[in-house]
Fold this sequence. Notes:
This protein is an alpha/beta fold. The chain has one domain (8-261): NAD(P)-binding Rossmann-like Domain (Rossmann fold). The chain is built from nine helices and nine strands. Helix 3 runs parallel beside helix 4. Residues 1-5 have low confidence and may be disordered.
Amino acid sequence: MAVNSTKVIWITGASSGIGKALAEEYALKKCCLILSARKRETLEEVAEYCRKLGSEAFVLPFDLYLLKNADEIVSRALDFKGHIDILVNNGGISQRSKVMDTSLEVSARIMDINFFAQIALGRNLLKSFIQNGGGRFVVISSLSGKFGFPMRSTYAASKHALHGYFETLALENYEHNVKVTMVCPGRIKTDISLNAITGDGASFGKMDEGMEKGMPAKVCAKKIIRAVEKDRREVYIGRKEVLMVYFKKFLPSLFFNIARKVDPSK
């Protein structure tokens, strides 16, 4: 079903990258937007731009890492329009460190942000979806949610976990018209590597060469929206790096030989 102006879309991580691009693309479709990220000022700028495109837009700032009151956050989101049709679980954090160099505290932080916060929002919104006759979770995973990759151990683990959780949620709630689209982007030109953390929790602060040359976020956003409109359960978005999913599935030895030699910064 195509998205229309009656849809209420809640996007986390909406202040930059894929989240911001999705907000702008949905605004062009005159959807009502609820935009979340940490910084209110940046969210207001995105919301104002979306309003100029003809969309109704609200801001709901919060920090995924400090999300101890997901029920309250979901309630506040629902208060804007009384219902939500699509939650885009996009907010998250990446990693640039080897297993032996990554503290357990850093791994826990990544899991809190990328997994536990996402499922807390999802679980608390699920009841509303059921009461309103359905809804959709668009979960921004990663190609690393389909295979391991150097310097991404806990990041990959958090994304793998999202697949298991939300696939189960979709199976359990099929009769309630609750749907899930798992989105697995590859190299998209965003600030994800700049904002990634290292093994001791410090900011990586560098733009990966692969990300710098990656698919524009706007193109990625269009592909995500198209996948949702086509009711896709899972979609891989990127360029030649998408082939790694198929190598892993059909030619695992080839996948391993390529992955162990790859420069994770390229």
